[in-house]
Amino acid sequence: MRILLVEDDSRLLTQLDQLLQTNGYSVDLADDGEKASFLIQEYPYDLAIVDIGLPIIDGFEVIKTARKNNIACPILILTARDRWQEKVEGLDAGADDYLTKPFHNEELLARVKALIRRSSGQANPVIEKGPISLDTTAEEVSVNGEYLELTAYEYKVLEYLLHNPQKIVSKTELTEHIYDQDFDLDSNVIEVFVGRLRKKLDPDGSYKPIETLRGRGYRINRDL
After folding, report:
1. Cα 125 from Cα 67, distance rounded (Å)
2. Is the Cβ–Cβ distance between 43 and 5 less than 8 Å?
3. Model's pTM, two decimal places?
């Protein structure tokens, strides 16, 4: 999953970047509102974390502009503890949730996961599709109750496909959502990950969990 992180405090920006990457997210950074407004309209994100007090353009305007341009990704605002007005104004601008500073890392991660689930219509942290069960909290996958050992990127590919079960997802889209923005989009590494996932999820080829639509991309089998 790909996150836009917007924070003008360089120390906090670095800390949150490391936290999110350690927990498997691809992260793009912005330390002012102008850059944030450009990135959120230029690249597809699964979530944006936006501080309110930004230089050049404040966080409220970043959010309002994004919503006016039909950017639908969930937005989590960061705000000072004693400014309840910022929470209200941020939600009115189009944010989906807020977190007050200072905060615990565990709460930030929990809110991030909840917002991403909610945006894809998943209320339960465990996504089930046929025999496949993916626990977004524990980041574990099982098939018919048997735990599977997946690499970090195999997990990311499966998680994104399961969050978009009705959608045909191109290789480019998958790459954009699991890698940082400077990754080579022409790489065939996605084909490798999907091939490995198929072997691990369905070693005998009995239910074919991931469909390939030639020239278009991949989709979770709708018959599961």
Report:
1. 27
2. no
3. 0.86
pLDDT tens, 27-77?
Answer: 999 999 999 999 999 999 999 999 999 999 999 999 999 999 999 999 999
| 30-37 long-range Cβ contacts below 8 angstroms, 24+ apart | 30/4, 30/5, 30/6, 31/6, 31/7, 31/55, 32/8, 32/56, 32/57, 33/6, 33/57, 33/58, 33/59, 33/61, 33/62, 36/4, 36/6, 36/62, 37/61, 37/62, 37/65, 37/66
In the CATH scheme, what is the code of domain 126-220?
1.10.10.10
Identify the band that residue 108 occupies on the pLDDT scale cut at 50, 70 and 90: very high
| Dist. CA 170–CA 151, nearest whole Å | 21
* Max Cα-Cα span within the chain: 58
Question: How do the domains of the chain map onto residue ranges?
Answer: 2-119, 126-220
CATH topology of domain 2-119: Rossmann fold (3.40.50)
What is the radius of gyration, based on Cα positions, of the chain?
Answer: 18
Q: Sign of the CA dihedral 45, 180, 56, 100?
A: positive
Element (H, E) at 132: strand 132-135
CB 112 within 8 A of CB 4: no
- 127 CB contacts (<8 Å, ≥6 apart)? 133, 134, 136, 162, 163
